[in-house]
Design goal:
Strand order of the largest sheet: 3-2-1-4-5-6-7
Number of strands: 7
Number of helices: 11
Largest sheet: 7 strands, parallel
Shape: globular
Distance between the termini: 105 Å
Order of helices and strands: HHEHEHEHEHEHEHHEHH
Strand content: 5-15%
Radius of gyration: 24 Å
C-alpha cells in the first residue's frame, strides 16, 4: 500500500510538473510571438504607409545635435516630409552647411541656433526666445556626448563628467520644458528622445554614458505615461552602434554592416516607428540585440561581456592611434630624407 501510494504520488507530481512546464513554455512562446509581431509592426509594417507629419504634429521640427550623424539625418528626413526645421548645434559653420543643404534639397524653411549645451542652464533662456512663436510639432532630443574611446571612470576628466551631465541629461528635460506647453495647447506634437541600447544595462568603461542614457530612457517613458491621453506622442529610441563620428575610433563598430547601419539607414527605420512604438531600438538588428540583452543573458554575464568588449575596443583604438603616429613619423622622415 505504501509503495502504491508513493507511485501514485509520483505520478501526480509528474502530471503537475508537466502541466506547469507546458504553461511556462506556452508563456514563453506567446511572449516571443508578441515581441516579433510588435517588432514587425513597428519596424516593417509602418514603412508601408506615408506619414503626414505636418498635419499630425505641426509645422516645425526642432533637432538638437543636428550637424552630424543621427541628428543630421533626423533633420533631413523630417524636412523630406515637408517640415520646417530648426537646427541646434554647437558649430556655426556646420549649421550653415547643413541648413543650406536641407533648404535647397527639400524647399523648406530652415533656421539655425548655435548652442553649446555643455554650458548648462544659461543657454535655455536664449533658446526659449527663438522658439516661442513657432508651432513646434516635433522635438528630437538627440544631442549627446560619449567617451571616445571607452575608458575606465578614473581616467575621465572633470570636463567630460559635466559634459555628460549637461548635454546627455540636462538638455532633455530642459528642451522638453520649452516645447511642451505649446504642444499641450494644440493637443498634438511629438517628442523623440534618443537614448541608447546601453541604457538597458550598466556598461563598464562607458559607465557614465550608459547611466545618463538610462536617465533619458526612464524620463521619456514617464513622460509618455503622464501625457498619454493628451494627443502627444512621446517616444524613446535606444540605438546600438550606428556608423557616425561617435563610433569612428574603431572599424569594428564603425564600418557599415547588418548590425552597424549608416545614419541614413538607421533614421529611416527609426522614424518609421513614430506613432507605432513608444519605445524602440529603431532598427531590426538592434531590436534582436536588445532582446538578448533583456531576456537571455544574466546580468553578471552581460557585465562581463560588455566589460571585455569595451576593453578590447579601447585597446584597438590605442593600437590604431599608435599605427597612425608611426605612419605619420615614417612619412615625415621619408619626405625629410628626399629633401
Amino acid at each position: 500500500m505504501a509503495e502504491g501510494g508513493l507511485l501514485a504520488g509520483l505520478g501526480c507530481l509528474e502530471s503537475t510538473l508537466t502541466i506547469v512546464g507546458l504553461l511556462y513554455a506556452t508563456k514563453v512562446i506567446v511572449y516571443i510571438l508578441w515581441e516579433v509581431l510588435a517588432g514587425v509592426r513597428a519596424l516593417f509594417w509602418s514603412r508601408l504607409f506615408d506619414k503626414k507629419l505636418v498635419d499630425t504634429y505641426g509645422k516645425w521640427a526642432v533637432v538638437t545635435g543636428s550637424t552630424d550623424g543621427i541628428g543630421k539625418e533626423y533633420a533631413r528626413q523630417l524636412a523630406k516630409y515637408g517640415m520646417n526645421v530648426v537646427l541646434i548645434s554647437r558649430t556655426q559653420n556646420k549649421l550653415k552647411e547643413v541648413s543650406t543643404e536641407i533648404g535647397e534639397k527639400y524647399g523648406v524653411e530652415v533656421e539655425t541656433i548655435p548652442v553649446d549645451f555643455s554650458l548648462g542652464p544659461i543657454v535655455y533662456e536664449e533658446l526659449a526666445k527663438h522658439l516661442q512663436d513657432k508651432e513646434i510639432g516635433v522635438l528630437v532630443n538627440n544631442v549627446g556626448v560619449c567617451l571616445n574611446p571607452p575608458t575606465k571612470f578614473g581616467n575621465v576628466t572633470d570636463q567630460e563628467i559635466w559634459a555628460h551631465v549637461h548635454v546627455n541629461v540636462g538638455s532633455v528635460p530642459a528642451m522638453t520644458k520649452l516645447v511642451l506647453p505649446g504642444m499641450l495647447a494644440r493637443n498634438k506634437g511629438a517628442i523623440i528622445n534618443i537614448a541608447s541600447m546601453s541604457a538597458h544595462s550598466p556598461t563598464p568603461s562607458l559607465g557614465i554614458y550608459s547611466a545618463t542614457k538610462a536617465f533619458v530612457d526612464y524620463f521619456s517613458s514617464s513622460l509618455h505615461w503622464e501625457y498619454r491621453d493628451t494627443g502627444l506622442t512621446i517616444q524613446t529610441i535606444n540605438p546600438g552602434y550606428v556608423s557616425t563620428n561617435m563610433t569612428k575610433y574603431s572599424a569594428y563598430i564603425h564600418s557599415p554592416s547588418a548590425t552597424v547601419p549608416t545614419a541614413s539607414e538607421y533614421v529611416s527605420s527609426a522614424l518609421s516607428t513614430l506613432g507605432y512604438s513608444q519605445r524602440s531600438s529603431g532598427y531590426w538588428s538592434h531590436a534582436i540585440q536588445t532582446y538578448f540583452m533583456n531576456n537571455v543573458f544574466n546580468k553578471w554575464i552581460l557585465l562581463y561581456i560588455l566589460g571585455a568588449w569595451h576593453t578590447f575596443l579601447e585597446e584597438d583604438s590605442k593600437r590604431r592611434r599608435s599605427n597612425e603616429t608611426k605612419l605619420l613619423l615614417r612619412t615625415s622622415s621619408e619626405i625629410h630624407t628626399r629633401n
